[in-house]
Structure formats: structure tokens, C-alpha cells
Amino acid sequence: MTDNATLYRWAELLVDHPTDLIDRRRIIGERMMISHVTLHKGFHVPLHSHENEQFAVVLSGRVRFSLVDRQSGQPYDLVLGPGEVLRLPSHVVHGASAEETSLILDLFSPISETTGVDVPKVERA
């Protein structure tokens, strides 16, 4: 890692496809990472959790997040659209489904070679 500023262009970064219906580009820094993610309509990632704190910034489309309340254990859903941001603290159980093709910026700290679409899934209690 360099001590100087680094310029990136999303269009020039490699795209990976960790699961069907997702296109992802990532920039991984020293203490955080950002993913530029296109979730195609019908994309679904089952419930999971991870150590990383995550911010999901919806730039376009509609994404349904399935969540589990930490205190009650009760499941609930939130549907996010453009201009909305969901903060997911470390180890919060969550999943997501694209109700339409959506563009999201996912910010993660600490960095990790894996994100929610790469980690083992957990079942709802």
C-alpha cells in the first residue's frame, strides 16, 4: 500500500461475479473497502452475518433487506431505494434480494477478502 493518494476508476476495475446475478468491483484499502455492486433483478443472498460493519448505499433500484432483530430475534424486512443507506453493525444477521436491478455501494470495515455474498449462510431461528 502506498502513502500517496490513489485514483481509481470503476470502469477500469476488474468485475467479479461471486454468485449469479451480481457484478462486483472492489477497492480494498488498509482499513476499509468499498464495493461497487450491481444486483440484477432476482438476485438473492440468504441470511448471513460477518465481523465487518457495513454501510449499503442504494444509488438506484430497490433492494429488500431481510434482518433479524438482535434483542427479540424476530425477522423483519426493509425495502431501500435510491438515496437510502442501511448501516449494518458487526454480526447483525441480514440478507438481501433485488426487487429490480440495483446499483449499490457497499462500504466495509475492517477490510476482508470476503463479503456477505462470499461467507457461509445462517438459517433463521
Write the layout of secondary structure elements.
Elements: E1 22-28, E2 33-39, E3 44-48, E4 53-60, E5 63-68, E6 75-80, E7 84-88, E8 94-98, E9 102-109
Antiparallel strand pairs: 1-2, 2-9, 3-8, 4-7, 4-9, 5-6, 5-8
Short structural summary:
The chain is built from no helices and 9 strands. The protein has 125 residues and is an all-beta fold.
Please describe what this structure looks like.
There is one protein chain. The protein starts with 21 loop residues before the first strand and ends in a 16-residue tail after the last strand. A hairpin with a 4-residue loop joins strand 1 (22-28) and strand 2. It is mainly beta and 125 residues long. The chain has strands at 22-28, 33-39, 44-48, 53-60, 63-68, 75-80, 84-88, 94-98, 102-109.
